[in-house]
Amino acid sequence: MSTAISQAEPKPKVVVRQPRRITLQEFLQNYSNKEDGYKYEWNNGLVEKTITMNQQQANFFFLLLDFFQKTSASKNGGGLITETDMFTSSVQMRRPDIAFYSGAQRLLMKKGENQVAPWLAEVISPSDNADKINEKLEEYFKAGVQVVWHIFPASLQVYVYTAPDKVTICRGKTLCSGAPALPDFEISAECLFA
Question: Which of 44, 45, 125, 183 could bridge across to 179 with cysteines, CB 3.0–4.6 Å?
Fold first, then answer.
């Protein structure tokens, strides 16, 4: 009686490619003004690609802009803007979906000085990665952002953060507040999703 000894075929080696890091200059040259339906951000040399706001999501901007124009911040020269460059550190450049800058900040921006928005909102889509959302939340607060709204259109909720671990979940008639960055800026979740 003979026994056959089979030799297992060697497993092919899997080559895992590390993402190529690029300089800020390369990022600005190749991705800053790229118009292909994606939003590009620079994170410690890596390019992060997400889908830009679509027209449905842009309606949140228009609605918030209407409410914002009634605030003291608006009367003092402040403004809301969508997807503009904001350095959160020397190695990270983000483009929040919607951001508020005060009148004083806008004057400094005209001079080319980077400013960190005290209030911002991100419209969360089904393709967004939860871990990336949380990493960016931490990053925003480390940079000096005071309030972050995560707008969830699918579940009709807004998570209002005043710190990475301090959140109010707004649904229905619950007011979403911009305080302390925008004390007189508030809207119910119900109105936001109407």
Answer: 183
**Per the structure block, which two tokens stand in for 141?**
């607060």
Position 33 in a domain: no
For the stretch 111-164, pLDDT in tens is 999 999 999 999 999 889 999 999 999 999 999 999 999 999 999 999 999 999
pTM above 0.85, yes or no: yes
Task: For residue 152, give the nearest of 57, 54, 84 by alpha carbon.
Answer: 57
Which positions ≥6 away from 27 have C-beta within 8 Å?
40, 42, 47, 93
pLDDT digits (tens, 9 = 90+) for 157-173: 999 999 999 999 999 99
Number of folded domains that form the chain: 1
| Other C-beta atoms lying within 10 Å of the C-beta of residue 29 | 11
CATH assignment at residue 79? 3.90.1570.10
* DSSP structural state of residue 128: S
The residue behind tokens 């979940």 is: 169
Residue of 18 and 153 predicted with greater confidence: 153
